[in-house]
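We treat protein structure as text, and this decision shapes the records that our systems exchange. The remainder of this section carries one protein's record, kept here as part of the documentation:
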Amino acid sequence: MLTFRLGAEHYAIDILKVQEIRGYEAVTRIANAPRSVKGVINLRGNIVPIIDMRIRFELAQANYDDFTVVIIVNVGARVVGMVVDGVSDVVGLTSEQIQPGPALAAIDQSCIVGLATLEDRMLILLDVQALLADIDSP
């Protein structure tokens, strides 16, 4: 699992979905795009949408700095960039370390695979495909 930060929260995604990690660079804005879509970049001839995960999760807006990175992921047949505050590390988790998310009606669990405690961190495990599925919705 690749772990990354958004503010004080730690998240993890399947590293097999990760194509590469890049520093944040200027994007080309697209008119009428959803608010979380910052724009697109040309990645070696492929147009890649860039999603700001802080906006996607309705977190406080952060200023982009030298630690801001874009995680390029393969979601089905699509390539998408996720802007995050920083990448932490790559970890291996056993099934015993992964717990289900809290069963509360107010929490959308459609993209949460589970929670794991690792040393002093609580990791929120995300299903990237479910997380970014709505970017194809009209």
The chain has a mean pLDDT of 89. The first strand starts at residue 2 and ends at 6. The longest helix spans residues 53-56. Residues 34 and 137 are 10 Å apart (CA to CA).
